[in-house]
Write a structure and sequence with these properties.
Layout: E1 2-3, E2 6-8, E3 11-13, E4 20-25, E5 30-36, H1 40-59, H2 62-78, H3 80-91, H4 95-119, E6 124-127, E7 131-139, E8 142-146, H5 152-165, E9 169-173, H6 180-192, E10 199-201, H7 206-214, E11 221-225, H8 228-238, E12 244-248, E13 254-257, H9 263-275, E14 287-291, H10 292-307, H11 327-342, E15 346-349, E16 353-354, E17 365-366, E18 369-372, E19 389-395, H12 398-406, E20 410-411, E21 413-417, H13 421-430, E22 435-438, E23 453-454, E24 457-458, H14 463-469, E25 471-479
Parallel strand pairs: 1-5, 8-9, 8-11, 9-10, 11-12, 13-14, 13-21, 14-19, 18-19, 21-22
Antiparallel strand pairs: 2-3, 4-5, 6-7, 7-25, 12-24, 15-18, 16-17, 20-23
Helix pairs in contact: 1-7, 2-4, 2-6, 3-4, 3-6, 4-5, 9-10
The protein binds ligand TXE.
Length: about 475
C-alpha cells in the first residue's frame, strides 16, 4: 500500500504522530493508498522550515526564482500522463479530462506567475514639485495555502504559484481526499532544485492540520479554496489574528439562455457547464433559466444530449462522467435529488446511482440528472449540490431572470446566452457574480481577477491581484 509523505524542509517525511488515513480510489470504492494524518507538530516543523528559507528566497533575483518555477512546470509537462492518471484515480474524473484540463492548467499556473513576477511593478506618485511617493512591495512572509479536492493540482498550483513567485515561502495543505498529485508534485520540486523549506506540503484533515495552519501565528496570509461553511470557520480564526485572507468558496451559478441565442452552441456548452467533472466544479452552471419561447425546444435537446453522456470507468476513452469523489459526497448528491422530488421537481433524466460492472462495480457513480418543475426559492435551487444535477426553469422577462439569478446567497459565476449585444452588457452589469461568461463557459484569461461575491468568497485571485495579495505594501514619501 503506497504511503504518501509530507514534504517538509526539502524532504519527504512521515507525520510526527506516525498516523495515516485511508485514501480511496472512488471509481473502485476501495482504499488504494495512505495519507499522513498530520497535526500541529507537523505544521510547526513546516513553518520553521519556511521561515528559515524565507530570507534567501525573498532576496533571490526574481529571474532566478522564475527559472526554478518554470523548471517545475517543465517537469509537470514531462509527467503529464502520470499526473493525469493519478488525478483521475484520486478524484474519480475521466483521465481524458485530467489530461486536457487539470494538469496542463497546473503547468500554466506555474508559468503564468513565474513570468508575471518578472514584469510585476508597483506604483509611484509625483506630488507636485514637492515630493515623490512610491509604493514598496515586499513578500509578506510564510503563506498558508489550503486547496479542495475537485481540481486538485490545478487549484493547488493556483495558490502556491503566486505566493512563491512573489517571494513568499509556503506551507500548503491539499485536500485529504485527493492528496496524490500534490505528493508527486513535491517530488518534482525536489528534482527541479527548489531550495529546501521554500514549499512545504503537510497532508491531513482540515480541522486538524488545516486548522493548525490557519491559527499559526507566523503565517500572516491565508489563501483558501473550498466550501463556504469551511470558509466561514477559517475567517473566524484568521480575522482576530489580523491575517490577510483570500477565500474562494462555493457557488450556485445561473446559466441564462435567451431565445435569440446561438441555440446549438448554447445547448452543447450548457451540457458541458452542467456536467463537466461530474458537476464538481464550483463554476458549473447548476441553475439553467431559458426564455419561455425557447424553453420546450431547449429542454428536449438538452435532455437528449445529456442521455448520450457515458457514465463509466474514468480510465476509458468514451467516459464523460466519472465517479464522485467519495461515498459521502455521492450520498449527499443523491439526497439532494430526493429533496428535489419532495419539493415537486420532475426528474427528466438520471437521478440514480449507477452500478457498473468489473473493476468499478463498487464505485461512486451517479447519472447526470436534469430536473424541472421547481421554483427559484426551493432548497434545491438555493443550496450548492456540487454534483451532476441541474435544474431548468422558464422565464419571461429580463428583470424576472435577473431576480432569479441573483436570488441565492452565492455570487461566484454566471453564464449568459444571447446574440443581442445590448442585452449582454445590460444583464451582465446587473448580475451579482464575480465572473460572467457571455456565449462561452470556463474561457479563462489568467490575468483577470478571479473570485466570488456574497458567500462565494472574499478577495480576488489571478493576475496582479494574486501577486499583490502575497506582498506587503508600504508607501514611502520622499520630500524633494
Ligand atoms: O471543501 P472543504 P471541499 C468549493 C465547492 C465546494 C467545496 C468542495 O463549491 O463547496 O469547495 O471542496 C480543508 N481549517 N469550491 O469539500 O471541505 C480541507 O481539508 C482549515 C470553490 O474539499 O471546505 C480541504 O483541504 N482547513 C472554489 C479544504 O479545506 C480546513 C473552487 C477544502 O475543504 C478546515 C473549488 C478547517 N477547519 C471548490 N476544514 C472556488 N470558488 O473557486 C476543511 N479544511
Amino acid at each position: 500500500m503506497q504511503k504518501i509523505l509530507n514534504y517538509i524542509n526539502g524532504e519527504l517525511v512521515g507525520p510526527a504522530s506516525g498516523k495515516f488515513l485511508d485514501n480511496y480510489n472512488p471509481a473502485e470504492g476501495k482504499v488504494y493508498s495512505q495519507v499522513p494524518d498530520s497535526d500541529a507538530a507537523d505544521v510547526n516543523s513546516a513553518v520553521d522550515a519556511a521561515q528559515q528559507a524565507f530570507e534567501a528566497w525573498a532576496a533571490m533575483p526574481v529571474e532566478k526564482r522564475s527559472a526554478i518555477l518554470q523548471k517545475i512546470a517543465d517537469l509537470v509537462d514531462r509527467d503529464l500522463d502520470k499526473l493525469a492518471l493519478a488525478e483521475s484515480v484520486d478524484q474519480g474524473k475521466p483521465v481524458k479530462l485530467a489530461k486536457a484540463v487539470d494538469i496542463p492548467r497546473a503547468s500554466s499556473n506555474m508559468r503564468f506567475f513565474a513570468t508575471g513576477a518578472i514584469h510585476f511593478a508597483s506604483e509611484a506618485h509625483v506630488t507636485g514639485t514637492e515630493a515623490v511617493n512610491y509604493t514598496l512591495r515586499t513578500p509578506i512572509g510564510v503563506a498558508g495555502c489550503i486547496s479542495p479536492w475537485n481540481l486538485p493540482l490545478y487549484l493547488f498550483t493556483w495558490k502556491i504559484a503566486p505566493a512563491l513567485a512573489a517571494g513568499c515561502t509556503v506551507v500548503a495543505k491539499p485536500s485529504e481526499l485527493t492528496p496524490m498529485t500534490a505528493f508527486l508534485f513535491s517530488q518534482l520540486c525536489m528534482e527541479a532544485g527548489l531550495p529546501k523549506g521554500v514549499l512545504n506540503i503537510v497532508h491531513g484533515l482540515g480541522p486538524r492540520a488545516g486548522q493548525a495552519i490557519i491559527e499559526h501565528p507566523e503565517i500572516p496570509a491565508i489563501s483558501f479554496t473550498g466550501g463556504t461553511v469551511t470558509g466561514r470557520k477559517i475567517a473566524a480564526t484568521a480575522a482576530p489574528m489580523f491575517k490577510k485572507l483570500s477565500l474562494e468558496l462555493g457557488g450556485k451559478n445561473p446559466n441564462i439562455v435567451f431565445a435569440d441565442c446561438d441555440f446549438e452552441q448554447a445547448v452543447r456548452t450548457s451540457v458541458q457547464s452542467s456536467f463537466s467533472n461530474q458537476g464538481e466544479i464550483c463554476l458549473c452552471g447548476s441553475r439553467i433559466f431559458v426564455e419561455r419561447s425557447l424553453y420546450e425546444r431547449f429542454v428536449h435537446e438538452f435532455v437528449n444530449m445529456t442521455k448520450q453522456l457515458v457514465v463509466g470507468d474514468p480510465q476509458e476513452e468514451k467516459t464523460r462522467i466519472g465517479a464522485l469523489v467519495s461515498e459521502a459526497h455521492m450520498n449527499k448528491v443523491l439526497s439532494y435529488i430526493a429533496l428535489a422530488q419532495q419539493e415537486g421537481g420532475k426528474v427528466l433524466t438520471g437521478g440514480k446511482r449507477v452500478i457498473l460492472q468489473g473493476r468499478c462495480a463498487n464505485g461512486y457513480f451517479v447519472e447526470p440528472t436534469v430536473i424541472t418543475g421547481l421554483n427559484a426559492t426551493c432548497s434545491t435551487n438555493q443550496e450548492e449540490i456540487f454534483g451532476p444535477v441541474v435544474t431548468i426553469m422558464p422565464f419571461d422577462t429580463e428583470d424576472e431572470v435577473i431576480g432569479y439569478a441573483n436570488g441565492t446567497p452565492y455570487g461566484l459565476s454566471a453564464t449568459l446566452w444571447t446574440e443581442n449585444l445590448k442585452c449582454a452588457h445590460r444583464v451582465a452589469a446587473q448580475l451579482k457574480s464575480g465572473i460572467i461568461w457571455v456565449n462561452c463557459w470556463l474561457f479563462r484569461d489568467l490575468r483577470t481577477p478571479f473570485g466570488g461575491m456574497k458567500q462565494s468568497g472574499v478577495g480576488r485571485e489571478g493576475g496582479w491581484e494574486a501577486l499583490r495579495f502575497f506582498t506587503e505594501a508600504k508607501n514611502v514619501c520622499v520630500k524633494l
